[in-house]
Design brief:
Layout: H1 22-44, E1 47-51, E2 54-56, E3 61-64, E4 67-70, E5 76-79, E6 83-86, E7 100-116, E8 129-144, E9 159-166, E10 170-177, E11 179-181, E12 185-194, E13 202-209, E14 213-214, E15 221-229, E16 237-245, E17 250-257, E18 262-266, E19 269-271, E20 277-284, H2 288-297, H3 301-305, E21 312-322, E22 327-333, H4 347-354, H5 362-368, E23 374-376, E24 386-394, E25 404-406, E26 410-411, E27 419-431, E28 436-443, E29 459-466, E30 471-478, E31 486-495, H6 499-506, E32 512-515, E33 519-523, E34 527-529, E35 532-535, E36 542-546, E37 553-554, E38 559-561, E39 567-575, E40 582-590
Parallel strand pairs: 11-20, 33-40
Antiparallel strand pairs: 1-4, 2-3, 3-6, 4-5, 7-8, 7-21, 9-10, 10-12, 12-16, 13-15, 13-18, 14-16, 16-23, 17-20, 18-19, 21-22, 24-31, 25-30, 26-30, 27-28, 27-31, 29-30, 32-35, 34-38, 36-39, 37-38, 39-40
Amino acid sequence: MENAQLLPFERNRYYSGKLLTSADFLAEQTYFNNKRRFTNSLLFGTGIVCGLNVYNLDDLSVMVESGVAIDGLGREVVLENSAVKKLSALEGFETLETDQISLCLRYGEEETQTVYSIGASASGNESDYEPNRIRENSVLFLTDKNKLNKTQILESEFLNTACLYSDDDYTVVISMPATVSCGSLSRLTVRITKTSDTAKAFSMNCVLQTPAFTNSYGEHELVVKADELLPAQNQPVTLSYWLKAQDFEASDTMIIVKSNFAKIYIGSVTMRLADNFILKAVLSGASTQEIIEREIAKVSLEARSIQSADDYIWLADINIQRTKSAYIIDNIDEYAAKRYICSAAAENLRREYSGWFDRKEENTARFQAGEPYKYAGTFAAPEPIYATGICEIALGENRRKGATVYSDEIMHGLGKGNVHVSVGFEYLAEDKKLQNTAKNTIYGDPALFNGKELPIAYANTAVKVMNDRGSFAVAAKLTKDTNYVVIVMRWVAVKLPSGEEQTMMKHMTDKSISPVQSTVVLGTRESHFFNVHFKNMEPVTLNYMLTESDSGTITADGVYTAPNKEGVYEIFISCTDMPMIKTYAYAVVKKKGLEPD
């Protein structure tokens, strides 16, 4: 964090016979640099102008594409060429304390082009050489996510916010714009935050009286309901509603909640408001755009100048998993980190792209559809609950019946906590129904499958799960002599529900999803959209995942593209907010011309 103060501006005054020293030339550079940075910070703000996308190349490395950004001090930060870096090679890696880290970019300078200096000895320098140029560059670095400086928001009177209810476990805060344009729609939010680690659910039934506003039914009241919420601690649940302002001005109106019209339940205990709640607002004849521009512009230069400024650009959040001597990249999230600058140079392209979307006012559509339009944060699944992979145990000379071998420590990727891991013997065999070689997995005792000898090393298995390390190890004891040198096993890990997740599961009774087509036959490189049926529930956002590597690709929207090789591939589908509601689909991939009639 650096001081954002660039004032006062001071430039050289030239006159005949003036003796110019290095200090004068430095003042000249500082004047123009500060003027430009002052303009950048006020007119453009902080963020990415173009590029700087972050990609996961492998388990250890990331690639950052070339691009330009402006930092909190108004400096242009330029990454000239795309950079491929191992995380361990980046500045800050050695001092990381957690597995939740952030990748950032900051402005840098380096002195270059060393030349002989005639006056070096006279000025007391030990060397006769001086750098002749200063090259501007950029520096990538890592920091713990929880140590990121949070830029202070400039003080503004745009929102009116008041606390409806507060105790040791929950707080309820209501917010809306302080000034609303007559006849327009404005949003009112109810933010519910669990401030303790209590396992008690929160419910509320509250009537807001809105004398100068109407809901979507033309009524001067708003009913706010919340049923059995159990959010994570300090992770607010936000309910949003749209209200329409009356057509004439009012210098002092309010939203009112009478104490006898509000019921709040913490667990099974009924709570009441200590007093009536009032939230004030003003109805203005100015347009919504005029109100917004005025609130932004009325912040004084002095207030802006004393605001602390970030000297870095936040590029991405990275989750890693560590072993004793190494690490792997779990996932990269750019969306929470990235802040973009809306440049005038891209206005024509922006207008062209906008032509591909519906121009209908989003607020009006939400208002006409009823309220609330948004119900966010009730259930959260910050970590996956399912993972699978291949485990190989080398036998070496231990190929006799009774020999016991062990795998290395394996990271399952589901984080710390209670996790169940199963292992099965995986092998390839001819499948008459598929008319092709198919993959099979046996969980349990393979000797129970009578018939011809299976192409596996027969063994009894056990799994040791290290709950606090997020890993496991497999032991195998041979039950027959074998000629195989490696035991190949498929492992499947499932995260067991905690207390909060059990509460979530109560809400999922009789709810399920199923694929519209559970099995599809595709040619290589062909694509198919895996749609689902929702039973006893409204459509929600879905997660799609392939259960094994090299089985094609699938987008976040469920469009699967088959690989170049034949086989049967499994697709795992789950609800984003309720991950315990899940299903599977299968793609049978065949070469062109081999599809069944």
